[in-house]
Amino acid sequence: MENHFSTTWSDIVIYASQKQSDGVKLFLTRYVLQATIYSIWRERNARKHGDTKTPSEVLFRNIDRLVKNKIMSLTSPHVQRFATAYQVWIGAVP
To answer: Is the pLDDT of residue 9 over 90?
Structure first.
């Protein structure tokens, strides 16, 4: 996660599809991808229906909030392996 960057859709999908030894990073990678796609879809839909452009900083904060909310919602005993996800996410976000 820390040194993987690409703007090519196929590279992003391949990276998110790979098995990683670190389940937390794999979860975060996939969930960030999902949250990003959802946020872009919402922005597209809003613009299509006449709303104004949302600044990229606001989109980034919205994605960050979606990820944090998801991490905080993981409270059941079978997801204890993701207990460090919040610390990993905080370390990954500037």
So the answer is: no
